Amino acid sequence: MADKRVYFFGGGKADGNAKMKELLGGKGANLAEMTSLGVPVPPGFTIATKVCSEYYKSGGKWPTGLADEVNKNLAKLEKAMNAKLGDPSKPLLVSVRSGAAVSMPGMMDSILNLGLNDEVIEGIIAKTGNARFAYDIYRRFIDMFGDVVMGCRHEYFEAKIDAAKKKAGVEVDSDLSAEQLKGVVEEYKKVYKKHVGSLFPQDGQTQLKHAIDAVLESWNAARAVKYRQLNNITGLLGTAVNVQAMVFGNMGDDCGTGVCFTRNPSTGQKEFYGEFLMNAQGEDVVAGIRTPIELTKLAKVMPHAYTQLTRLMTRLEKHYKDMQDMEFTIQEKKLYILQTRTGKRTAEAAIKIAVDMVNERLIPKKEAVMRVEPEQLDRLLHPHFDPKAKRGVVATGLPASPGAAVGQVVFTADVAEAWRDKGKKVILIREETSPEDIGGMDAAEGILTQRGGMTSHAAVVARGMGKPCVAGVVALNINYKAKKLNVGKLTIREGDWISLDGSTGEVMKGKLGTVEPKMSGDFERFMRICDRIRVLGVRTNADTPEDAKRAREFGAEGIGLCRTEHMFFEGERIWPVRQMILAADDYAAMLSELEAAEDAKAKKAIEKEYATAKKQFEGALKKLLPFQRDDFVGIFKAMAGLPVTVRLLDPPLHEFLPQDEASQKEMARRLGVKPAVVKAKVAQLHEFNPMLGHRGCRLAVTYPAIYRMQARAIIEAALKVRKGGKKVLPEIMIPLIGAVSELKLVKDEVVDEINAVFKEKKSKIAYLLGTMIEVPRAALTADEVAAEAEFFSFGTNDLTQMTMGFSRDDAGKFLGEYVNKGIYAADPFQSLDQTGVGKLVEMGTKLGRGVRKKLKVGICGEHGGEPASIDFCHRVGMNYVSCSPFRVPIARLAAAQSVVRNA
Amino acid sequence: MADKRVYFFGGGKADGNAKMKELLGGKGANLAEMTSLGVPVPPGFTIATKVCSEYYKSGGKWPTGLADEVNKNLAKLEKAMNAKLGDPSKPLLVSVRSGAAVSMPGMMDSILNLGLNDEVIEGIIAKTGNARFAYDIYRRFIDMFGDVVMGCRHEYFEAKIDAAKKKAGVEVDSDLSAEQLKGVVEEYKKVYKKHVGSLFPQDGQTQLKHAIDAVLESWNAARAVKYRQLNNITGLLGTAVNVQAMVFGNMGDDCGTGVCFTRNPSTGQKEFYGEFLMNAQGEDVVAGIRTPIELTKLAKVMPHAYTQLTRLMTRLEKHYKDMQDMEFTIQEKKLYILQTRTGKRTAEAAIKIAVDMVNERLIPKKEAVMRVEPEQLDRLLHPHFDPKAKRGVVATGLPASPGAAVGQVVFTADVAEAWRDKGKKVILIREETSPEDIGGMDAAEGILTQRGGMTSHAAVVARGMGKPCVAGVVALNINYKAKKLNVGKLTIREGDWISLDGSTGEVMKGKLGTVEPKMSGDFERFMRICDRIRVLGVRTNADTPEDAKRAREFGAEGIGLCRTEHMFFEGERIWPVRQMILAADDYAAMLSELEAAEDAKAKKAIEKEYATAKKQFEGALKKLLPFQRDDFVGIFKAMAGLPVTVRLLDPPLHEFLPQDEASQKEMARRLGVKPAVVKAKVAQLHEFNPMLGHRGCRLAVTYPAIYRMQARAIIEAALKVRKGGKKVLPEIMIPLIGAVSELKLVKDEVVDEINAVFKEKKSKIAYLLGTMIEVPRAALTADEVAAEAEFFSFGTNDLTQMTMGFSRDDAGKFLGEYVNKGIYAADPFQSLDQTGVGKLVEMGTKLGRGVRKKLKVGICGEHGGEPASIDFCHRVGMNYVSCSPFRVPIARLAAAQSVVRNA
Questions:
Q1: CB contact at 8 A, A722 and A730
Q2: Which helix (H) or strand (E) holds B23?
Q3: Which of A201, A317, B330, B468 could bond to B502 as cystine, CB 3.0-4.6 Å?
Q4: Nearest-CA distance A799 → chain B (Å)
């Protein structure tokens, strides 16, 4: 048995079964399984995948004994069919197909009608009385064999039939007469001879040997190798080869062929679904020349076959416990099933089928959650383009935030807002976006950038807003001055309409029709199934009450990351922020000057300057306080009863200053200083590597008053909302911590301010104080850090940047190449690098919990919404993941799947 | 005994000894030790350090029993001295001094002559017949007690004696008569009363209680606390209090006082060294009003005391086994030793003394290497300013590269080179330097930058060149256009002379005199002692044959880091480099276009373009090959017989392009392209965080031909030099590796090229191929990486940047604050952060060696020359450290010390 290389199936018995995919490939295993089930499958045999590996090891030779085994099985097949390869009186025709354990495009598909030759043709004509049919399958066979097996290009054959049609004055192949087709056969043989260099082989055995070799060779065809590389498919032995008796749907009017689904693959409805063509071969259904007929109509045409088919459908679905996609052929009223496999389906259908099958007790809940791809859900939550609309793609970038957007082009955030206010729909196009563009991004239907990757500012913010975004369209050549862009030879100007597909990264000229998403009751039911299974909590990243509300509707169980810097930009607030920045530096510099001052006079002068700067600095912060407090009031209300993690100010201060000269002048005017002062401040705050610069808690080390103001705003808001009768669970998060001493210092300031608020208000509220773990050092020393932190939230965006040494703003230029060349399996900003960054996450979690057993651990990087990363978080034992509102359902599903997968 | 708080010493017996520093402080322990040795020390007692901690715990109260113990010991002291506190007939006077286990400025120094009052004075006059002496010590005591113990400022007293001198018409204190001094005493008492608010205490016990309290309080004086913070001194109980009988060197002409060293502290010569003053108190020696007399002359003045002193010096040095710094007083011909301690010495002296003491068999070799501070050596290797020269410091920055430099100011590298060629000495001043400035830096005597930290480009390159550099002088305001700079109100123009002290960070106007370093035979001998002890290898970071030669002279055992990018800048080479960069991108872009091209025509067009770009790209590389090869020939020759680690190209390509418009135009002209092309390329290569950008091996992933050229140059050079009869040990190092798959990919290219060279030349040479570990991920996955690497070299500069999230170009702005606030004990770019970054280094080493037992591990970051970091490398078990040439001796010493310290 160990030496067995060929597996027979036929007559209700099979050497193999469905579990032998590894050895027989998916198709072969399924053919065997169906045969054993008594499904009418044309008999045949499967050459096992291990032959493929032996074939390559020996440099392209058949292993000893294989030829014998093939011959024996061929004889068995001939007996089963009562026919013989090459025998004109009772000819056996076979198909030869590839089939690996994993479905894999790029390999040889199939050779049909193998066994035909000049003599057999005569036999078939004699037997069927249908010369047209005979010559048609013969010429198809020569073409297919020549093209697929011998590498003689299909075009050469195609030219000949085109000539014949022209000569005959007909349009379609099927209008050629038997005689004319016979001529085509002769022409095909000549083409074969000319390009292959030998006569078309008349011997069936030779044909079969060549076809089997061709299947084996196709395993290492460039396309197949590339596909395996791209999809990281390794460890397979090779492809199996399936040799199966032919049945014909095109032998006459009592013949036909079709495909059917056990449930509707578009809607998931429990109904028989499919289509068929009478007197046709499979490829005719695909070719679309004749319009196929709806499956249910088969009941009228061939009631017996229909009844038999529906019974088989029910049976196979029950057997495989999943919706089946089947191919069938009726030859002279006899039904044959050629293939059954798990049917592909839309997201909507996947959900309905999963929910229905649970209700039907066909599958358990844990199985149901595995039946929907988390990424599929994305499509359900965003509008998308009408699939029938013609797409005039002018450029392609990264699918940075899913959904469809249509609007008029604008190039600045200001114009975007102005046009939106006039009721226009706009698409904001920028080389890159910065926090200054937030208003414009909010005003736009979608965002398009020339630079930046999947986790660029534009991408992150757009996903948070649920707005379509295509990022990193390098082909764009933007001219802000001229308000236009060039892409190739095309020019797009301000006001022109374009359409963005954020799910594919495509940019299209003009207005494409869109389809709004529909969410069914099944969706809710499915999500509840997920919730019952999953262990991981799912929170959301939300900075506004609107986002918080939306995320809550999507099932978020709290906010895992509420960024406060966006609040610094809105409307008039930017002015006190900028005033603070202008004063901030003097304030700090003077403090140290003061300490160093030696004589009393110098001291006094500095003290005076210091007092002025301090007043300005604190005055600016005082102006910000009510804004921040109101923001938090809104968010706490929206998230009443659920925890809200607020991250204190994170970005470097220079992000709040205008970069162009005109805006700098405007700032100077508004704040009553000389333009040179603003310019100097911008220059002074310039950083070579802002990612690694003066930001996060480092700002609070220099300017403790900023975090104090924020802590006050949070606690005052929490007390206020609680007074209104709502439960508030604030969690204050300090970003960019690298050392416990740093956390301690900043935390002490924050706690001191909070205690002051408690004292003033004569009221207290419970809160947690924790830190983001995003600097590798913090993860490495998490045992120390945990002593001062009540929770950890892994900021895997920055942790990835620092651990791998990639700037996410720049790495887009070469990360694609890294993935293509297989250095990393995926873009580490999209899917967590589990080996490297993950090691730090695991280490940080373990070290932290070693010191503080009940340490709450979550993730708030972009990875919190990505299924593979969520699986990792589950395995590490985190308490929750946090992701953008629109990814909350995806995370709920992925978290449930992780439980099943890791059971 | 556990309750014992006060330790007596006197009469040849002592309760304590030298080992009880923790409890008695350094001074107290030493006084006890000397007493036991029979050294004539004035008797006294020491209040233990634990009292200080009890005092603070109880809020400033003496612990129960202390007063009794003090009284008992005072009685013992009175008995030993046959004198009594406050007894005019036989008065006891004492000194009260602080003294912790670690020498610590900032605490109270001493109160002398305690016990004086109006009655005692009369007794002293009666006893000594010296009223002038009596009133002088009385007025000194009131001043000292008022100032130090009661906080009545010294100036108030000073004003009174000044008035008295004016009135008496004399210049110096000693010209005041007894009567006049008596008047001063009265004035002093009034001052005391006015500012302290009570009469000057006449009771000796009260004086003593106050003085002891003052010593205890001084432990927490602001200056003392700050000193402990800055020097990271923790875990001490507090200060001890030493109460000791006074002896007087100023009681007449048979009295005197002095300091002496058992060896010459400047040169290390074995000779008695010191100075003394007859009829004087210690402070007179320090005050410098009278010129002290050379010690040897004491032999003539008081032969007995001199003989006794020299015997004691010899004895104490033998006892303590180190050069002693002693204070002595002769009272009425009787010699007293007041203090002995290990003497401070110059680097030169330290080395000589260590070597001599080994030869004298006084100390073992392992002890000798501990006697020189590694950092002291730095001064020996660089010229320094004449210590007598007056320094007009105009600004201070970071001491980025040690040594003294004097030159005329220039603001551009070009001018620096031009002026040097005319024979001028120049100081190059830049806001920051870039690789373009190398030529100018080489031409300059020293470098001064406005921005950047201790590991900025300027600092690193300057240290490599052994040139003084002061970096990050933020006070500078440079105006390149006007060729001048402002610092405060001062303007410095091109051509002005300035002086830089790279060891202190000081910038001075004008030309200061310098002193050249001298290296003695003892230096060589000392280094050989170090070499015999150390386990760590010491290599150098060197990019040129000159540097390599110099480092070898300093004892380098190979090159640990030879950067190749500097070679890309020199002279005419920059042009092919720039040509390559212009072509490089098209080349890569086209390759992927080519892959994507669908129809044959498009394919052909791209193929043609591709061929052109490729030709240009490879043509440029071909031009570079001979330059690189020659560079390596020079370096391999200089390092014949020793390993040379060559790092393949590391910086991002944009560093090779000019940033200002004029230079971009020049580049366009030279390379025959439009200026817009250059501008576009600069824009395209711009990165937000270049530190995390497209550089290191990432360049080779995109453009394998670059590393291929470099590998070829290295191997061709190695073969050539070997042909010349010299041994070459090339080690090729691939930088910025993050994953083993990345290393494998790049390594395969490099090895393929090397094998091609072997084939062409029909000759082979052994080489190693390894990687820099500088991306945290590489350290985390070192077990994987080691499978492909024959050596690891920790690039701790970048590893620190990424692990801690600090950009070394930017962090200078706030890292000082981090160190001041105690978040990090030291600047992590200067001294390796052992807790965080060190954890990765240790993990990387262990994981790597777990897979490849004999993995060679080294460090090539700046830390390789820093003693504490070297100690860490020793403990981790590295094979070698690598540092800049001038730090090689420091590293050799530090490595030896590590062996002793960790034995």
A1: no
A2: helix B21-36
A3: B468
A4: 9
State pLDDT tens for residues A673-731.
Answer: 999 889 988 988 999 999 999 999 999 999 999 999 999 999 999 999 999 999 999 99
Chain A contact probe: residue of B659, B698, B702, B842 with most A CBs at under 10 A:
B698
- Do residues A29 and A16 lie in contact, with contact meaning Cβ atoms separated by under 8 Å? yes
Helix spans in B687-811 (H): 697-702, 704-723, 740-761, 776-780, 782-785, 796-804
End-to-end CA gap in chain B: 34
Yes or no: say if B532 and B525 are a contact pair by the CB < 8 Å rule: no
The sign of the dihedral angle between the CA atoms of A885, A887, A889, A893 is negative
Contact A379, A504 (CB under 8 A): no
Q: What are phi and psi of A686, to 5 degrees?
A: -60, 140
Give the C-alpha separation, B592 to B597, whole Å. Answer: 9
Q: What does the pLDDT look like over A91-101, one tens digit per residue?
A: 999 999 999 99
Using CB atoms, pick whichever of A693, A803, A810 lies closest to residue B810: A693
Tokens of B17: 């000894």
The alpha-carbon gap from A691 to the nearest alpha carbon of chain B, in Å, equals 7
Q: Is B202 on the interface with A (CB under 8 A)?
A: no
Those residues whose C-beta lies under 8 Å from the C-beta of residue B630, and which sit 6 or more positions away, are: B717
Alpha-carbon B344 to chain mean position: 16
Q: Which residue of A has its CA nearest to B776?
A: A803
Q: Could you say which of A860, A863, A873, A874 is catalytic?
A: A860
Contact residues on chain B for A736, CB-CB shorter than 8 A: 805
Residue of B nearest to A801 (CA): B692
pLDDT tens figures, B732-745: 999 999 999 999 99
Question: Distance between CA B366 and CA B534 in Å, rounded?
Answer: 10
Distance CA B517, CA A204 (A): 95
Q: If 0-12 CB within 10 Å is exposed, 13-18 middle and 19+ buried, where does residue A51 land?
A: buried
The CB density around residue A432, as the number of other CB atoms within 10 Å, is 16
Residues in chain B: 903
Question: CA nearest A833 in B: which residue?
Answer: B777
- Cβ pair A834, A842 in contact under 8 A: no
Angle at B597 between CA B706 and CA A149, to 5 degrees: 110
∠ CA B727-B732-B736, nearest 5°, is 160
Using alpha carbons, list the distances in angstroms from residue B699 to A574, A814, B585, B591, B703. Answer: 40, 9, 11, 15, 6
From CA A95, how far away is CA A113, in angstroms rounded?
6
Name the residue of chain B whose CA is nearest to A691's CA.
B689
CB A501 within 8 A of CB A508: yes
Under the banding of pLDDT at 50, 70 and 90, the label for residue B242 is very high
* pLDDT above 90 for B386: no
Alpha-helical segments (H) within A118-240: 118-128, 131-144, 154-168, 178-196, 204-218, 222-230
Catalytic residue status for A457? yes
Amino acid at A701: V
3-state secondary structure of B823: coil
Q: Which of A382, A457, A654, A874 does the annotation list as catalytic? A: A457
Counting one residue from chain A and one from chain B, the pairs whose CB atoms sit within 8 A come to 168
* Cβ-based contacts of A777 with chain B (< 8 Å): 803-805, 833, 836-837
Q: Say if residue B227 is exposed, middle or buried (CB neighbours under 10 Å; 0-12, 13-18, 19+).
A: middle
| Residues contacting B159, CB < 8 A, separation 6+ | none
Asked if A781's CB is within 8 angstroms of B810's CB, the reply is no
- Cross-chain Cβ contact B810/A687 below 8 Å: yes
The CA R_g of chain A, rounded to the nearest whole Å, is 34
Highest mean pLDDT: which of A430-434, B700-704, B714-718? B714-718
What number of other Cβ atoms are within 10 A of residue A425's Cβ? Answer: 16
